[in-house]
Prior knowledge:
The structure holds 2 protein chains of 2 kinds. By secondary structure, chain A is mainly alpha-helical.
Amino acid sequence: MEYFLQQLINGVTLGSIYGLIAIGYTMVYGIIGMINFAHGDIFMVGAFISLILIVTLGVTASMPLALLILALIAILIVSMALTSVWGWTVERIAYRPLRGSFRLAPLITAIGASIVLQNFVQISQGARNKPLQPLIPGGFTLSEGAGESGFIVQLSYSQILIIVVTTVLMIGFTTLINKTSLGRAQRSCEQDRKMASLLGINVDRTISLTFVMGASLASVAGLMFLIYYGVIDFYIGFLAGVKAFTAAVLGGIGSLPGAMLGGLLIGLIETFWSGYFSVEYKDVAAFSILAIVLIFMPEGLLGKPEVEKV
Amino acid sequence: MSSWTNNPILTIEHLTMRFGGLVAIGDLSFNVGRGDITALIGPNGAGKTTVFNCVTGFYKPTEGRIVMHRSNKEKFLLERMPDFKISAKAKVARTFQNIRLFGGMTLLENLMVAQHNPLMLASGFTIGGIFGVASFHKAEKEAVDRARFWLDRIGLLERADAPAADLPYGDQRRLEIARAMCSGPELLCLDEPAAGLNPKESGELNSLLQYIRAEQGTSILLIEHDMSVVMEISDHVVVLDYGEKISDGTPEEVKNDPKVIAAYLGVPDEEVDLVEQEVGL
């Protein structure tokens, strides 16, 4: 039981990070019907920007708590802003000029943009792992190993931070999409871009803003990843990106709650598989579940089947 | 003098649209009078919808000029503007022959989307909106009021929160007109608004259009096949055939124009012989 609880906590933490990245995939797919393969690398850039800020500002765990929290909030905001610029630039350079050309063209530039970002970070930051001293050490001990197994269940402060920040952001973000004029414009562009523009909506700008929002959420995921694992390199975007993409597809690509649910599920599947069966096959497990779900529910868990009007 | 020569809201000058070798519209010029209901009619394939597509920025015309004269004396060359600015700046709105509502959004949301630009401005491009600035709440409330006003007007207020795709066909048509009106247009372009409506719905549509013209002061340009609608409500009729204007005037004048009758009903055989002699066939 204690072991299960621990895996659950770990799984939800990991799932939150995947969920944040998956939102970027699902929103971009929703609005322009394209998989933004560079999104995982935007997440990686976000993690690097956060790391650079942390090192430059000299933020360490030994700081007074209030100052540490303040510094982390500042880093979060600056990193979101800077990463958004990267997301915006990728859209502007690699995707917008190809809008209206054949469907595979932006897919190819997406892969290109992904390689460019990886190599740029590899060259400018070096290829070696970048470690970070734990910023938020410690945590609650939920079970002192009282059971017959004697297993100690820990809920670390960084896990609490990740789960809380993710939940707040997801609620805020859902509100933004459902309640604000920008969100309505976005949803209208998803359904009929031409009609939206005939109603006076600047479609290009709305698409840019979608990339900006996706990138800023990915940068939060980047900071959370950095705090949780304490080590990053230029290649983390690939696997995290593929997992988040899987999460988006599992939840139903184009659906916002689907991306969150999918992220959570992939995180849980991975953690439980490595906890109970084998660490080596955790990716196989995650992707197998995806394959099985897609056989029975081709639109994903929460996706809506596309209705062709006759 | 007629209002369309004196005080036009839209002037189309020498408009030509070619698709490869096909001339969809050839050297077309006509005016739309301010405060008029202008009907654009003609047999199938005459190029009516192409004119609409040029006016609303769907197509870039091959040649010619389309000038929108707004009531504040501003002039806009529509053929040079990207389509979202035609709605936002030149205040021209349109509907489609095949209805294009945002089916997955509610009726209210459909009408709110049309008010996106003033709302974005009021919310400080969403940033102010997130922090709940007072001016944003006010603008949001005004937008909702306006949307509810139009829903009430078209008799769909009680279905405000239903998805637009669930509405019956006639209601969808009226909702599309309401949505176009929510963007605050000075010229409303309607592509076959009466298509597929039953006589009762058609009557409701007529009164809605007359209300829009009289109470909202919006000029209307419409494409219509239903001659009863055209003759009953329009002040000015322009007839196209094969991309060219063959008649232009009041409904009475157009109805009795032999060219119009020929285009719609064809001509007797003797006349064909006459024409063939003239051109030397």
